[in-house]
Amino acid sequence: MISWQLGIMQTCDNFATMPFRIEQLAQVVAYTPFLSGNKVRLVLSNLYGEADLYFDEIYLSKEEKFHVKHQVTYLKQKQVVIRRGHKLQTDPLTLKVQAGEKLYVWMKASRKQTYADVASTYATDLINASYGQKFDYCPSLRVNEHQRKSWFSLEGILVWTKHKPKVVEFAGDSLMEMGFVSQALGKLFLEEYPQQVTYLNTAVSGSRLLYDCPTDSPLLATYGQSLLKRKPKPNSVALSICFCGGNDLLLPAYSSQASKQVVTPAELVAGFRELLTSWPNPVVSSTILPAKKIQAQSEATRLAVNQGLSSWSQIFDGAKLLVDGQGKLKPTYQLGDGLHINQAGGNLLAQQLLAFLKTNSLL
Q1: What letter would DSSP give residue 251?
Q2: From 254's CA, which of 70, 96, 240, 337 has a CA 20 to 30 Å away?
Q3: Helix H or strand E segment including 224
């Protein structure tokens, strides 16, 4: 039976405390859907903004330069309005799409608006984005793993398809949101499980496992709810893969509020146990990766937590793969800040994660 299925999606973060105020917006977002079908819809978001958002024109194309493009409408109107506090799905657009074939979305807004629904990536193979502040501008996409690529109010693509894929959620903090792990594993899914698995990235940079974001600075307030509060809806996800826990150890050194939320090994282990047992779908989580700026007490906590998790069947020991003899991230696998992995690190983790998922019959 043919139905609407998630082709590829990355949810927007809440930037209400650090919104983007833009005179005119033109953004291009490239997606690589995981499903083939003959119709598509876009998912647009304005959950966090203070006013309705107006997009004069939205186009979809199979070409980055939009030489051939298709108008996207909502309620049969060319101007698409996203009401404050809402999401919407655009009208169905008849277009034959193939899994693994890139689609490009060009969104244009002529009026000055404030955008608080923000998504971003560093990896660029599955999702990439660029924006400019001129209405008639078609931004060029960049490929640079050291540079953040952001976009606004667009979460992904639905495909009208005969396939019934398993939705794999990539959850947690920046180690997932940046895209290096999820992209590498997603590309393996496309190769080894075509039309059987699709991609959902819900990770939020800076988020913690146990506590909501601190609110003592605008940036910290974008870090969102604790991962334990971000459970998928029942029957919406087949498997969640998480990287988390590192910010529970890091943030007390950067926030007066978080400094009162120093976690013990027992509290973090209990948090991981709740994560693995209380969600409505199977969950796999990595051990906590090291961080260059972590304090000595927090590093001792990290090591104790990882030791406590090491024998759990749903725990993947990502930290062991990437550390050197001093317990730090190997330079080969990180961006140079001692905290965030690069694409080489993501590739290694993805290869071992896929083997872990196969061994444990999770796909």
Answers
A1: G
A2: 240
A3: none
Residue 234 exposed, middle or buried by CB count within 10 Å (0-12, 13-18, 19+): exposed
Distances (CA, A) of 17 to 11, 220, 291: 18, 9, 26
Residue by residue, DSSP assigns 126-182 as: SEEEEEES-TT--PPP---TTS-EEEESEEEEEEEES--PEEEEEEESHHHHTSHHH
The two structure tokens encoding residue 128: 């990439």
Please give the model's pTM, rounded to 2 decimal places. 0.96
Alpha-carbon gap, residue 161 to 197, rounded angstroms: 13
pLDDT of the chain along its 363 residues, tens only? 899 999 999 999 999 999 999 999 999 999 999 999 999 999 999 999 999 999 999 999 999 999 999 999 999 999 999 999 999 999 999 999 999 999 999 999 999 999 999 999 999 999 999 999 999 999 999 999 899 999 999 999 999 999 999 999 999 999 999 999 999 999 999 999 999 999 999 999 999 999 999 999 999 999 999 999 999 999 999 999 999 999 999 999 999 999 999 999 999 999 999 999 999 999 999 999 998 877 888 999 999 999 999 999 999 999 999 999 888 899 999 998 888 999 999 999 999 999 999 999 998
Our measurement of the distance from residue 248's CA atom to the centroid of its chain's CA atoms, rounded to an integer in Å, reads 19
DSSP of 51-117: S-EEESEEEEESSTT-SS-EE--BTTBSSEEE-TTEEEEPPPEEEEE-TT--EEEEEEE-S-EEE-E
**What letter would DSSP give residue 246?**
H
CA nearest neighbour of 170 among 234, 118, 223, 242 = 242
Pairing of strands 3-10, 197-201: parallel
What is 289-320 written as a DSSP string? PP-TT--HHHHHHHHHHHHHHTT-TTEE-HHH
**What length is written for the chain?**
363
Each residue of 217-233: b (16+ CB within 10 Å) or e?
eeebbbbbebbbebbbe
DSSP string, 182-213: HHHHHHHHHHHSTTTEEEEE---TT--SSSPP
